[in-house]
Design goal:
11 helices, 6-phosphogluconate dehydrogenase C-terminal fold, 52% helix, alpha/beta
Length: 283
């Protein structure tokens, strides 16, 4: 792999460029993005050069799509006419079924391998990119069959995942989308709902709150520009996760109403503490 073309040099695309460079990649990194982003990426030495989409794709050994989900889907059809047959096209989209389905329809000249690095920050843009963003984080791959991981291009890409500090997890696209609906999309909605509930109320304006409120609303800083595409392409799975959460809140409400029965709420707290400990043991 000598040339990497990153479409969308923002937080994830920029961090991927910095991460592979830190891990020893000595080839060219081409950026395809807006003029403003390209200027910032060149100034920060995140990329070596900038090109329009077609010449970038024509020269790349790896095409890395780190755009918003709908833009990734739109890019796939364009790429098929430009990309070299021996190249690998991969993406970093936060949902996978819609992207993989589209790639199956339109990519015929080269291999596509769906991907999702489970890393991020509330800040957007190449200015927030960092080489260590993927350290200790899972990197999900969603091949259509196990054989897709055995091609020369895929094996080379896979070899970079541990080098950037991540570890590969292979999932079916639908399983991925169901999983992240509960582990990523639901936490975002819970934080946003909490912050939206408190917005406009007088209590937060008093300054009488501790770290719990700050920690619990951190994800509410995330931009809808990213999340709109996620909701649009994973709506069914997210609705299932929200329904489960609403049912649990209703169980909390009922337990609070039964003030003489502390056992119900204690069981909820014990179950929650068990899960919280498990999550922290993995990080």
């Amino acid at each position: 792999m000598q040339t990497v073309a990153i479409f969308g040099v923002g937080l994830i695309g920029g961090s991927f460029a910095l991460a592979i460079r830190k891990a020893g990649f000595a080839g060219r990194i081409i950026g395809v993005s807006s003029d403003e982003t390209i200027r910032a990426a060149l100034a920060a030495r995140v990329i070596n050069e900038a090109l329009p989409a077609q010449p970038a794709a024509e020269q790349a050994d790896l095409v890395y799509l780190a755009q918003p989900i709908h833009r990734i889907i739109d890019s796939l059809a364009e790429l098929n006419a430009w990309v070299r047959p021996e190249a690998l096209i991969t993406d970093a989209g936060s949902t996978k079924q819609a992207i993989v389905d589209r790639a199956r329809q339109v990519i015929s000249r080269a291999q596509f391998l769906g991907g999702h690095p489970m890393a991020g920050r509330e800040r957007r843009g190449v200015e927030a990119a960092e080489a260590d963003l993927f350290q200790g984080r899972p990197y999900v791959l969603t091949p259509r069959s196990a054989s897709e991981l055995e091609t020369e291009a895929a094996r080379e890409f896979l070899s970079w995942i541990p080098r950037i500090g991540s570890f590969p997890v292979v999932l079916d696209p639908e399983e991925h989308d169901r999983t992240v609906a509960f582990t990523s999309h639901l936490p975002q909605l819970a934080a946003t709902a909490l912050a939206a509930t408190l917005d406009g109320r007088p209590e937060p304006l008093t300054g009488v709150y501790g770290p719990a409120l700050v920690d619990s609303t951190r994800l509410a800083l995330s931009s809808f520009e990213i999340w709109g595409d996620i909701f649009d392409t994973n709506r069914r799975q997210i609705l299932a996760a929200v329904e489960s959460y609403v049912a649990k809140l209703e169980a909390f409400r009922q337990a609070l109403e039964r003030s003489s029965d502390e056992g119900a709420m204690r069981r909820h707290f014990d179950a929650a503490a068990h899960l919280a400990a498990q999550v922290r043991d993995k990080n």
